[in-house]
Amino acid sequence: MSNRITSLFKIKYPIIQAGMIWNSGWRLASASSNSGILGLIGAGSMYPEVLREHIQKCKKATNKPFGVNVPMLYPNIEEIMHIIVEEGVNIVFTSAGNPKTWTTWLKERGITVVHVVSSVKFALKAQQAGVDAIVAEGFEAGGHNGRDETTTLALIPMVKEKVQIPLIAAGGIATGQAMLATMILGADGVQIGSRFVASEESSAHDAFKNIVVEAKEGDTQLTLKEFAPVRLLKNDFYNQIQDLYKKSPTTEQLKELLGRARAKKGMFEGDLNEGELEIGQVSGLINDIKPVSKIVEDIIKEFEDSKREVSKL
């Protein structure tokens, strides 16, 4: 399967494993890359020296391309970028910030840069900033999300109409059927997050993986738009947020409730009551925990089978 995404990243299949905080350590990234897709280390939950350690372990575990996802709203961004360069990482996905800030600096050092967007407006800004590709992420996605609540089905063709660089679809994609659908709409490849949370190699706590598998339609909700909108599984912490909203809270009151390390508490430490449990709507389709290699194998088989079925229509 060869196209603009496989050529850009030198991978077998046009699939990117999303760099998710507290889920995407070196084990997940290397297993993904070894399966023929692009693995990403999620730098957002790592102190700089922890990121260095994960990059070094990933290099030992795979000889295939892998990258690092860097949410630009996190601290230590300058130190993180220098570590990425020092360790010879050739692919960086940036998100949650202005792509102009780091794109030129990274590209001058020979790094392929991809930026994550949630709207046509920001897709155009990313293209103007000189990124090599764009991830257009729909409202269905887990974790931090766009404020406009544009769904993947609507977002991908609108972005495709306006940009010329390679386009990667994200949000609500966990199967080969969804992969084919977004590529028919104009995407050159897909980025998948939630399905890889429920993998054996994910660094998420087993309790979080299991509750993702148990999730049904309607079990997630986008909230906390005052900061960076985030899609959460409904639990005690989510209910506390909703109760506070009924009182028309100030931003400071919301910050006080959010506190520190909520995402770590939920996804990494397995506190299913008081932790922040970030996952996409597609969790309702995830029914088991499997090795990454099997997940990729299943997606590609579904993709090829779906292509044959579509040809009969």
Structural features, described:
There is one protein chain. The chain is α/β, with parallel strands linked by helices and 313 residues long. The chain has 2 domains: 4-203 and 286-310, TIM Barrel; 216-282, no CATH class. The chain has helices at 4-9, 26-34, 48-61, 77-86, 103-107, 120-129, 152-162, 176-184, 194-197, 206-214, 236-245, 251-258, 262-268, 292-310, and strands at 15-17, 39-42, 66-71, 91-95, 112-117, 133-137, 143-144, 167-170, 189-192, 220-223, 230-233. The strands form 2 sheets. The protein has an 8-stranded parallel β-sheet with strand order 1-9-8-6-5-4-3-2. A hairpin with a 6-residue loop joins strand 10 and strand 11. The model has no long low-confidence stretch (mean pLDDT 95).
Features:
313 residues, alpha/beta, TIM Barrel, eight-stranded parallel β-sheet, globular
Average predicted confidence as pLDDT: 95
Shape by Cα distribution: globular
Poorly predicted ranges (pLDDT <50, ≥5 residues)?
none
User: How does the major sheet shape up?
Assistant: 8 strands, parallel
- The CATH top-level class label of the largest domain: Alpha Beta
CATH superfamily caption of the largest domain: Aldolase class I
Strand order across the largest sheet = 1-9-8-6-5-4-3-2
SSE order in H/E notation?
A: HEHEHEHEHEHEEHEHEHHEEHHHH
Q: Structural class, judged by helices and strands?
A: alpha/beta
How much helix, percentage-wise, in residues? 40-55%
* Count of all domains: 2
Which topology of the largest domain does CATH recognise? TIM Barrel
Radius of gyration based on Cα positions: 18 Å
The rounded distance between the terminal residues' Cα atoms is: 23 Å
Strand content: 15-25%
Assign the CATH architecture of the largest domain. Answer: Alpha-Beta Barrel
